[in-house]
From TrEMBL:
The protein's name in its UniProt record: Glycerol-3-phosphate acyltransferase
Domain of life from the UniProt record: Bacteria
Signal peptide from the UniProt entry: none
UniProt EC number: 2.3.1.275
Membrane topology: Multi-pass membrane protein
An individual GO BP term: phospholipid biosynthetic process
Classification via Pfam families: G3P_acyltransf
Primary site of residence: membrane
Role played: Catalyzes the transfer of an acyl group from acyl-phosphate (acyl-PO(4)) to glycerol-3-phosphate (G3P) to form lysophosphatidic acid (LPA). This enzyme utilizes acyl-phosphate as fatty acyl donor, but not acyl-CoA or acyl-ACP.
Gene source species: Henriciella mobilis
């Protein structure tokens, strides 16, 4: 029975995270299946490739909020921050691997950011500025995301975050690197496109 709240939070968080807002929004706008263009991803970056900045922004906000909502709901329901963290982490997994889309979802950056807002401001205090600086300097979204992901658990630890939270954030950062493995390979080769640059023109 001790683990029942964690199980309930994980299931609820996963279901919230699995809502494919990018796919739903683009279909509602009459743009068809977002998975057939660009990277095939359902996240905000790929939605931006439709040319609709408003839809990309809506996707970004909704993908971020669903993890934060999971944290908020289950923290309040069980009066336990750790349970909320589990729910947020499960929302991240649901976004990246939604069961009803063949476990092919987004890369989790926006969802991770939303989790940090509600679950670990200490991690956000490090990851947020790191993302912004790297993006402004290099204009490469994936590089900014990977740098931020790497620094979030380190920063959270240095700022006195709990060991449980640091462990969860570390696991999520590792998963961000996994979902960005193709981007990482292109970064190593020097062929990853900058923001607004088409992949065929990169390098």
């Amino acid at each position: 029975m001790t683990y029942l709240p964690f199980v309930i939070a994980a299931l609820g968080g996963y279901l919230l995270g699995s809502i494919p807002f990018g796919l739903l929004i683009t279909r509602a706008a009459g743009l068809g299946d977002i998975r057939t263009i660009g990277s095939g991803n359902i996240g905000a970056t790929n939605v931006l490739r439709t040319g609709r900045k408003d839809l990309a922004l809506a996707t970004l906000l909704l993908d971020s909020f669903k993890a934060g909502l999971a944290v908020l709901i289950f923290t309040l329901v069980f009066s336990d921050r750790n349970t909320g963290l589990i729910a947020g982490a499960a929302a991240f997994l649901g976004h990246c691997y939604p069961a009803w889309l063949g476990f092919k979802g987004g890369k989790g950056v926006a969802t991770y950011a939303g989790l940090l807002v509600f679950a670990s401001l200490k991690g956000l205090m490090i990851g947020g500025p790191a993302w912004l600086i790297m993006f402004l300097v290099f204009r490469i979204s994936s590089l900014a995301a990977l740098t931020a992901a790497a620094l979030v658990p380190v920063g959270a630890f240095l700022l006195g975050e709990t060991h449980f939270a640091v462990a969860v954030l570390t696991a999520l950062s590792v998963l961000v690197f996994w979902t960005h493995r193709a981007n990482l390979a292109r970064l190593v080769k020097g062929t990853e496109p900058k923001f607004g640059q088409k992949k065929k023109d990169a390098g």
